[in-house]
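Trying the structure run again after the queue cleared.
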Amino acid sequence: MLGQHNFGQATPPDTSFALVSAGLTHTCGVTTEGETLCWGANEDGQAGVPDGTFKSVSVGDNHTCGVTTGGEAQCWGENYDGQAEAPASSFTLVSAGDRHTCGVTTGGNALCWGYSYSGRTEPPPNATLKTLSAGSDHTCGLSKGGKVLCRGIIGIGEREATDATFATINSGGDSNCGGITEGEVLCWGNRRNYRADLPDETFAHVGSGRGFSCGLTTGGDVRCWGSNRDRRAAPPDATFQSISVGADHVCGVSNDGDCGLPGSLGQWYSRTLGQG
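Done. Tokens:
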């Protein structure tokens, strides 16, 4: 992992992971044995995993949500705005934002809950979605036909998707990145921190944090750009299966033996300023 480490969010347990999700000051992952583990800040219970078996997990600022193996959405942590009160339905995925959460039901409907200012929890009307992603103050979804539909705060371009047809979408902070064709990615939103300036690479996934972005190339390498505070944009020399970009740190499930056993979490972060 890289980036801020002041709450232990960049110190994963010593086990093998199938997936990981990085938030503001905590991180969660599902192990290869199906156990969900969280580490880092826990003042609101965001790292206190409830009973149950989860097939996916998504970390917001101070809350966490997951989809159980039975398709139920469960959330825990901060709930001041109702962001941890998941509705009763069957979900294929959930995505936790800053103070809101959204999910896609098995029927392709989007359901959102939590802080609703500026319409971030209002799903696009008459749209069947295959995926969605919650950012800090907005949410973007991907229709069955590959059209990007966004709701929430506007003003710096985070809702201004092109007319391209997308295969993937990721909303992080106040910017978005989407995959168009194999390896081709477009980003839009806040360019003040270089989040939309991609290197000349072929990417499988790109995510954005606060002032920086990282992408996983089709060859498994990680490339980061933007602010390098706390070495958040300085990945190790390893290859990865997946990465997750949080607000100020990044986590990746590696497949490079030099970084640990396959499935171990890559660990790289700054220990300056009293961190770690």
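The CA atoms of residues 119 and 249 lie 28 Å apart. Worth checking whether this holds up in the mutant runs.
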